[in-house]
Amino acid sequence: MDFEVMIGVEVHAQLLTKTKIFCGCSTNFGRNPNTQVCPICLGMPGVLPVLNQEAVELAIRAALALHCKILRRERFARKGYFYPDLPKGYQISQYEEPFAAEGILSFERNGNCKTIRIKRMNLEEDAGKLIHEEDRGSLVDFNRCGVPLLEIATEPDLTSPKDTHTFLAELRQILQYLEVSSGDMEKGHLRCEPNISLKKPGQSEWGTRTELKNLNSLKGVEKGLLFEIRRQKRLLESGQPIRQETLLWDEKREIALPMRVKEEAGDYRYFPEPDLVPLVIDEEWIERVKRSLPELPDDRKKRFVETYKIREQDAQTLTLTRRLADYFEEVVKIHSDFTLAANWIITEVLGILHEKNLSIGDLSVTPARLAGLFHLIQDETISKKMAKEIFVKMVESGKQADEIVRVQGGQIRDEAEVERIIEEVLKGNSEEKVRYQSGEVKLMGYFIGQVMKRTDGKANPRMVNEILRKMLEGNPQKSGVQKK
Amino acid sequence: MELCEQSAFVLHQMLVSKEISCREILLSLLNRIHSRDLNAYITLFEEEALKEAERVDQQIKRGEDLSPWTGIPLAVKDNICIQGKPTTCGSKILTSFQPPYDASVISKLKEKDCLFIGKTNMDEFAMGSSNENSHYHPVRNPWDPTRVPGGSSGGSVAAVASGQAIWALGSDTGGSIRQPASFCGVVGLKPTYGRVSRYGLVAFASSLDQIGPIARTVQDCALLLEAIAGYDSLDSTSLDRPVPLYSTNLKREMQGMKMGIPREFFGEGLDSKVEERIRFAIHQLEEAGVEPLEISLPHTEYAIATYYLIATAEASSNLARYDGVRYGYRTKSFRDLYEMQSKTRQEGFGDEVKRRIMLGTYALSAGYYEAYYGRAQKARTLIRRDFDQAFEKVDFILTPTAPTQAFKIGEKIEDPLQMYLSDIYTVSPSLAGVPALSLPLDIPKDGLPIGLQFIGKTLEEEKLLQIAFACEEMKILDNSISS
Amino acid sequence: MEIITEEEVRHVARLARLALSEEEVKKFQRQLEKILEYVAKLRELNLEGVEPTTHVIPVVNRLREDRGKESLSKEEALSNAPNTEKGHFRVPKVIE
Ligand SMILES: [Mg+2]
Ligand SMILES: [Zn+2]
Fold it and tell me: Pick from A375, A408, A441: which residue ends a domain?
């Protein structure tokens, strides 16, 4: 039996601030445990939170990009629960007065356009990290504690795991574009907790909703959802009840197991945070952020197709990340062969990044240097084939294209030298020369190949072509015209 | 008069004129502390204070300028953090806790070369009105050691009243400076909410807590407030307003001022002896040209209920951090995390704290929020409005600080509600966030002090201090000390 | 009828992570009952349309710049902890 599926997600995105949301500790990752902590984020007695302005600005950006209504006056609330990674015994979050609400995110998959409603958006603080040790208890590291999070909750508008995957990829791209969040799911900078319920077609009531946690990648989200949908189907088909519960996804075993919860769980005793004063976001502030907002990926893609006349597929790839798109635009600002630039970046640049596991920001070949390489192609100092090798050398040595060309030599463009090489080739292929001169003109390609082989591909192809014709036919121009 | 009984103002003059040394002041105090055990201190910094006094004396010898606070020994309530010094809050759960930071008021006082002599006893987490709720045992009232000093700043107040400190810092959430000041016969001020930074004050009820000065004279009280008041970027709820020179602007013409006498504060429950004294003080002020006006603060009867719901709800959240993970006490035996946390809290907290955590948790829990916490927050609005309306007509409000004089140790401890009701006159201004000062009246024949409370408009501490100063000049009060 | 039952007292104690002896449960039930009876006074008030007070001061938008401040050293951070290991705070295992 086929079931209808209804999925909503709750996403937690770490905001790209330098310091934590309520204290001045750094948000850098990978430091030694408990070295990025202070009395405030350790929840020591008597300390007080002070809100980081940048966290608010980033949240406004995200809210604008997702077309949310930003609450003009809002307050923070305490969400109370006990857990060893939560130093104060409460998390400072937002409750009755969220940061923003009623947004939308549209995306396209397989030619279908979908719009997902964003229910609400909260600013809150992250908890610390627990390292569970078998049987021996746990170790707590509070470095992450107090890192600003943006919690984004959607309405249950998603209808399949694939949909959810696309939605998340789209959301992540927007957050990355706006430099709101790094969006790195593997590192936990973007966390997704979907809720799922099923319904038999024709029935009006949806089944009991369950929640999935611990999904650490887009693939994981899809797999986890598939698993949970299958599980719910089985239960429904056999007439068994579905319990309202939270399941933990086990990535290794690819199963989701219910979390055991205490009876009092869920009673968070929210109340307005007395240590923080209301946050008032006026029109002027929103306008200021709006003006600083970069172009969104979708708009940029459209503009790339229009302005640079490149294929939509290529524009899609080039706008995958803001940095890649910026890189492309930097290049074409200097070098105006848009198609060359697009093709080259998609194949060569992305290729080497993939091969060396680098990101565009790590690349030593700046847009200006890549444009420099294109100039050498354009003025025929090098061939496209040579350019590919030179590019690899540029990445590896950090040198500029013309430097490398100067050392290893560019194209052979000295007429006398090209003539000398061609003479040698013709001498060694006197039989083919006779066949050519007796009308087998397609042998021209063969001669060119021989010349290139001898010169390591460095001979200027146009020059080779001209001189070959001249030497084989005596009057290349004329013969050229005759051919046409 | 012994040095330990002098005011900070006089001691400063004596230091400047090189009549005395800082060491002599300190020794006089230490002598008083060791000769009379009131259990006012939890921790004494004897050696360090002596070294500090030595440093100040060197400074004097070199002829350096002294600030009015330099070298005047100060006692600090044990819920205010001093870096590297034990801060127990009167609780077992904070045994051995040493904050790696200073409270903002402490930083300010350190800049002024103030001399810290020790941390004073208090009701556990500032929850109590008698100082009997301390893990470090009750403080005794210097006027009658069988009686309570009031609470929760009982240690600070008893120390100041007995010459065991020149002045002290206390904290006031619903009367914790004013009620003990009234019981022990000293001047105590609860500033406007936000006037003094709360950073480093261990939270009891965040929307009500304020640090305030305790002293034997109005001028000293003003001087200490001057040192600690002001904006602090570490406290989002601190007010960004200039700090007046309270201690030098104390003179004020009383003629023509209007004092409000709220009828609700003079009804049932007010001890007749206290009432008589207060009425007499009103009469004296009248003679000085102050016009009395009977006013009404109609929601006064709801103040205690409102206060105990809000304060306990916030406290239940503020005290959730004491879980045996990062600092403080941890129970010895446990099977798992849940048991470690719940037993740590069972063993680490005293009865009153547990009671308030329970009440506050209940008031916030699912299904009860609106009926209890929600209602209390709205009632708070009505109580604030009462004050706004009253201050349209009067310059200040005058009331008793507490309904009775100091009661016997053990008298109310078994009946929490009765204990709560002893805060009846102090909680309303706390809920409204306005400043209030308790001034000691002449000690009656029974030898137990009575306090007069002045309540002012938001940020009008200056006016309150001026009125109190005028009363002091008029000898309405007695600055005598219980030695 | 009781306002708060012993079972509710136990529930609230679990919410507050407070272990209570049976005696304490009984005592707190009695005392809380009395206090709750008293605070029920607030039901007399007509609070319709009354805004709740969360702050008594008219301050909004207290924000800090996104600028770093020195953190504690690991030793300072852990110095008050009852149990530490390898630079971490150590806690017992969770049995749900
Ligand atoms: Mg959340
Ligand atoms: Zn921090």
Answer: A408
B245, B463 contact by CB (below 8 A): no
Chain A residues with CB inside 8 Å of B317's CB?
78, 80, 89-90, 269, 271
Among A408, A429, A454, where does a domain finish? A408
> In angstroms, rounded to a whole number, what is the distance separating the alpha carbons of residues B467 and A360?
71
The answer to whether position A484 is within a domain reads no
Q: Which of B117, B118, B180, B116 is nearest to B153 (CA)?
A: B180
Contact A384, A377 (CB under 8 A): yes
pLDDT winner (highest mean) among A422-436, A457-471, B271-285 = B271-285
Residue C95 lies in a domain: no
Q: How many domains does chain C have?
A: 1
B294 beta partners: B261
What are the residue numbers of the active site of B?
A: 77, 152, 176
CA distance C50 to A357: 61
Beta strand ranges found along B276-337 (DSSP E): 291-295
Task: Kindly state whether residues A323 and A420 are assigned to the same domain.
Answer: no
Q: Which domain holds residue A93?
A: 4-285
Confidence check: pLDDT of A413 > 80: no
Q: Which two tokens stand for residue B319?
A: 């005290």
> Is-contact A77 A119, C-beta < 8 A?
no
Q: Give the three-state DSSP class for B229.
A: strand
Q: What pTM was estimated for this model as a whole?
A: 0.87
State the best of A34, A147, A289 to mutate against chain C, taking most chain C CBs within 10 Å: A34
Of B79, B236, B361, the CB nearest to A269: B361
CATH label of the domain that carries residue C26: 1.10.20.60
**Co-location of A175 and A279 in the same domain:** yes
CATH code (residue A427): 1.10.10
Residue B235, amino acid: D
A258 and A402 share a domain?
Answer: no
Please tell me the distance from the alpha carbon of residue C20 to that of residue C29, in angstroms, as a whole number. Answer: 11
Q: Is the pLDDT of residue B205 over 60?
A: yes
Instruction: Give the integer Cα–Cα distance in Å for B243 and B245.
Output: 7
Which domains are seen in chain B, by residue range? Answer: 3-256+398-473 (3.90.1300.10)
- Residue A167 is given by DSSP the state H
Q: What residues contact residue A279 under an 8 Å CB cut-off, 6+ apart?
A: A51, A56, A73, A74, A75, A76, C60, C61
As for how many domains chain A has, the answer is: 3
* Residue C7: both structure tokens together: 């079972």
- For residue range B222-257, what is the model confidence (pLDDT) as tens digits? 999 999 999 999 999 999 999 999 999 999 999 999
Chain C nearest CA to A259, separation (Å):
9
Are B151 and B180 contacting, i.e. CB atoms less than 8 angstroms apart?
yes
Could you tell me if A260 lies within 8 Å of chain B, comparing CB atoms?
no
Asked whether residue A111 falls in the same domain as residue A55, the answer is yes
Query: Chain C, 14-43: which have a CB under 8 Å from a chain B CB?
Result: 14-20, 24, 28, 31-32, 34-36, 38-39, 41-43
Q: Are the beta carbons of C45 and B339 separated by less than 8 Å?
A: no
CB proximity list for B414: less than 8 A, separation 6 or greater: none
- One DSSP character per residue, A19-42 reads B-SSSS-B--SSPPTTSS--TTTT
Boundaries of domain holding C13: 6-43
Q: How many whole angstroms separate alpha carbon A233 and alpha carbon B222?
A: 74
Distance between CA atoms of residues A184 and A178, nearest Å = 14
Percentage of residues in chain A having pLDDT higher than 70: 95
ipTM of predicted complex: 0.96
Closest CA to B185 of B162, B166, B169: B162
- Nearest neighbour of B384 by CB, restricted to C53, C79, C83: C53
First-to-final CA distance of chain C = 34
Q: How many CA atoms lie within 13 A of B465 on its CB side?
A: 32
Nearest chain C CA: its distance from A257 CA (Å): 14
Shared domain for A63 and A155, answered yes or no, is: yes
